[in-house]
Amino acid sequence: MDKQVKPNSVLFLELFTEIEQKLKEICKDEFHSTFSELLRKAEKHSDVVYHFASDLKEFAQLRNAIVHTRRQNFIIAEPHDEVIAEMKKIHRLLYNPPKVFTVMTKNPVFTTPDDLLVDLITNFSTKRIRRCPVVEKGSIVGMVTARTITNWLASTKDTEISIKSIKIRDVLEFTDKDEFIVVAKNSDILSLIGQFRNSLKQGRYIQAALVTDNGSIKSNLIGIVTPSDLPRLIEKVNYAD
Fold first, then answer.
1. Does residue 139 lie within any of the structural domains?
2. Does residue 162 share a domain with residue 120?
3. For residue 199, what is the domain's CATH number?
4. What are phi and psi of 210, to 5 degrees?
5. Among 201, 203, 158, which residue's Cα sits nearest to residue 176?
6. pLDDT tens across 157-197, in order?
7. Last residue of some domain: 96, 131, 155?
8. Is it the case that residue 1 has pLDDT exceeding 50?
9. 222 and 214 Cβ atoms separated by less than 8 Å
10. Residue 25 falls within a domain, yes or no?
11. Residue 1 in domain
12. One domain, residues 230 and 124
């Protein structure tokens, strides 16, 4: 005998209740706040909630329509399949968000302070990379970009130098710590997207998210995510499993 399929209205209310419970957990809400109040508080602490706040507001109105227009044997406001699919996605992102380690480039190219700058420039060309983390004794100490090299060259315009003898440590003072962030491998992807987004609002441009086991700059570099990866990150969110 086939298992009875739940109507969309029942599925919707079950999902909505669990999403509401997650909002309470995010807000550490011990009182009986309304859903709107929970949403307003939670979107300050959760990138998932922030990202889907408008959808959740509309779903709250639909929840009210379902609850307050029940009839004895039927539901007046029966949600479409597309609504259920969107609710399931938000539910998955709240309870099991995709992690950064699933999208990062593993074992990225890096350099050390004692490496030669000319070798890094060669790597920029042959490996088609635009930035390179600098690691010393297992810690991230900076990131060299084309801008770093340009700024260093500008500082040497009145000096005769041989670039072949220049080491990475000689250009470290020209690196910009605002050009990268360090994130943990188990950070959720929407949080990372939020950091990229917020940096633009602040007039900064993050060239890379450097990934370590625990998000500490003193931990081993295991991956990298760059702005060119953003379409892949967004796709991962849209089709979260």
1. yes
2. yes
3. 3.10.580.10
4. -90, 130
5. 203
6. 777 788 889 999 999 999 999 999 999 999 999 999 989 98
7. 96
8. no
9. no
10. yes
11. no
12. yes
Q: Which residue is listed with tokens 């919707």?
A: 12
Residues 75 and 89: beta-carbon distance below 8 Å: no
Question: What residue has token string 């995510």?
Answer: 225
Cα separations in angstroms, 150 against 121, 125, 138, 174, 183? 12, 15, 27, 9, 27
Tokens of 131: 């930035």
Query: What tens digit of pLDDT does each residue of 10-58 get?
Result: 899 999 999 999 999 999 886 778 999 999 999 988 889 998 999 999 9
> 115 lies in which domain range?
101-238
CA-based nearest residue to 188, from 93, 88, 57: 93
* The pLDDT value given to residue 65: 85
In a domain? residue 2: no
Output the pLDDT for position 71.
63
**Is residue 14 within a helix (H) or strand (E), and if so which, with residue range?**
helix 8-27
Count how many domains the chain has: 2
Measured CA to CA, the distance from residue 237 to residue 49 in angstroms comes to: 13
Same structural domain, 33 and 106 = no
The 10 Å Cβ neighbour count of residue 129 is 16
Q: Answer yes or no: do 164 and 108 share one domain.
A: yes
Structure tokens, 148: 């770093």
Residue identified by tokens 């938000």 is: 90
Nearest Cα to 201, choosing from 68, 50, 77, 100?
50
The verdict on 76 and 182 lying in the same domain is: no
